[in-house]
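quick one, 319 residues, struct below
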Amino acid sequence: MKIQLSPYNANWPHSFELEKQKLECLLAPWVEGGIEHVGSTAVKGMWAKPIIDIMVGVKSLAHSKPAIEVLSANGYCYYPYKEHVMHWLCAPSPDFRTHHVHLVPFQSALWHERLKFRDVLRHDAEVAKQYIQLKQALAHENAHDREAYTQNKWPFIRQVLCAKPEGATMSDIIYTQAQADLPLDLLLEADPSETEIASYISGSHHFVAKQNNEIIAACIVKPLSSQKCEICNISVRPSKQKKGVGTQLLSYVLTQLSALKYQRVELGTGTFGYQLTYYQRMGFRVECVEVDYFVQHYNEPLYEQGIQHKDRLKLYLSL
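---
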């Protein structure tokens, strides 16, 4: 299929709104965080392939899998493109596309990257001009190679995403695998036992969220087998809590674990409180209750909202 760019069409926003209304009905059980118009057709004045890109926020890839069948029954075609970070569908057919739908975990790294790049293009005329010139050149050079066209845009996109405005915001947080030791004081925010932390930190996967080169959140994942792993610790600096950092980090971690070919993620948490709700919103389900776990494994009693944690719930998520 030849790559053909079109000048901006003032009808593109209207086309998005019409499809959004349809998707809000079809995807109501899975939408979390809204439905966004992304890609070049979402930027006034931008040249683009005349295809409306729609990003739908979902709780997790695992939780939103049933949505694929619903969309497939309503005119969309599913293809496993970048399936470790999103569910991708097109309409009306792979050979003739008018719409792309991307089911992306809300607050994931990809979610924020898509919105940030779109918003920069909307508000920075010089960057938008440079992007148009790049796209036109690549469309000429790779007229019949869609993959090369897409890949060769990435260095420019990455440069824009990495540019830091004055005063870092939450969208400037970088999610990555840790390249150095994790700060113990941060890990103690989630697990008050240094002994317990020492028992799982070695030989595990370490993921972090960094802002201004400072680690503000961390996650430790211990392999249990080639297909199964356990989240042992996910902690956020107190000043960054209740701001979506933990949710973004967990979404990033689950994406990375899927890419590493894990099929099942396990974790343990209390039988009540914010953390349980948080994990269930991410798609985790209860497998069993470990009676008196916190009493037997911790020297000091653990309290939340004035209630002592005694039993532990074992949760799991299938990737």
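The radius of gyration is 22 Å.
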